[in-house]
Amino acid sequence: ATCGHGCKYGECMGPNKCKCFPGFTGKTCNQDLNECGLKPRPCEHRCMNTHGSYKCYCLNGYMLMPDGTCASSRTCAMVNCQYGCEEVKGQVQCLCPSGGLQLGPNGRTCIDVDECSTGKAVCSYNRRCINTFGSFYCKCQLGFELKYTSGRYNCVDVNECVTNTHRCNLHAECLNTQGSFQCKCKQGYQGSGFDCA
């Protein structure tokens, strides 16, 4: 079976037919499935969609059970957690619904972990890290775009001279470079390439 368009988060099962891994959807399995929007809802109280998955958490005064349901807890209500809590050996601890969130100094609210600045996130060559609340993703560097080539997704240089997205002067030539472009005034003209006289 060959899938000309590729299957980003899935397997090729037939001519241009992808079988997506759990948590992903779309013709090329390139879209995250928002499990929180499914019927029946996967979580009893609150649901947080994550890349390829989801997390359940409970309203204050409730405790998250192993099966994803929320059980009433007087001790949880007293602690006043933002995202519900769990009891471990009689100790009440507030929870954060994602590894990209950490408990704040008050031990009740969750604050974002900036994986990009802490170095926790590793993006491949030609990609830059974008922090999101509770997570991060890798995006192509400026001057590059995501393209499906030779069986996988790669960040490929954008040829600004061909796509006509350069700002070269009418009397200048555009020269493509990796991730950028240069402008050079034509013969008989002089200047920066953006201005030629």
From TrEMBL:
<keyword id="KW-0732">Signal</keyword>
<protein>
    <submittedName>
        <fullName>EGFL6 protein</fullName>
    </submittedName>
</protein>
<keyword id="KW-0272">Extracellular matrix</keyword>
<keyword id="KW-0245">EGF-like domain</keyword>
<dbReference type="GO" id="GO:0030154">
    <property type="term" value="P:cell differentiation"/>
</dbReference>
<keyword id="KW-0106">Calcium</keyword>
<dbReference type="InterPro" id="IPR009030">
    <property type="entry name" value="Growth_fac_rcpt_cys_sf"/>
</dbReference>
<dbReference type="InterPro" id="IPR000742">
    <property type="entry name" value="EGF"/>
</dbReference>
<feature type="domain" description="EGF-like">
    <location>
        <begin position="112"/>
        <end position="150"/>
    </location>
</feature>
<dbReference type="InterPro" id="IPR052235">
    <property type="entry name" value="Nephronectin_domain"/>
</dbReference>
<keyword id="KW-0964">Secreted</keyword>
<feature type="domain" description="EGF-like">
    <location>
        <begin position="157"/>
        <end position="195"/>
    </location>
</feature>
<dbReference type="GO" id="GO:0005509">
    <property type="term" value="F:calcium ion binding"/>
</dbReference>
<dbReference type="InterPro" id="IPR001881">
    <property type="entry name" value="EGF-like_Ca-bd_dom"/>
</dbReference>
<dbReference type="InterPro" id="IPR000152">
    <property type="entry name" value="EGF-type_Asp/Asn_hydroxyl_site"/>
</dbReference>
<keyword id="KW-0217">Developmental protein</keyword>
<feature type="domain" description="EGF-like">
    <location>
        <begin position="32"/>
        <end position="71"/>
    </location>
</feature>
<dbReference type="GO" id="GO:0007155">
    <property type="term" value="P:cell adhesion"/>
</dbReference>
<dbReference type="InterPro" id="IPR018097">
    <property type="entry name" value="EGF_Ca-bd_CS"/>
</dbReference>
<keyword id="KW-1015">Disulfide bond</keyword>
<dbReference type="InterPro" id="IPR049883">
    <property type="entry name" value="NOTCH1_EGF-like"/>
</dbReference>
<comment type="similarity">
    <text>Belongs to the nephronectin family.</text>
</comment>
<keyword id="KW-0130">Cell adhesion</keyword>
<keyword id="KW-0677">Repeat</keyword>
<keyword id="KW-0221">Differentiation</keyword>
<dbReference type="Pfam" id="PF07645">
    <property type="entry name" value="EGF_CA"/>
</dbReference>
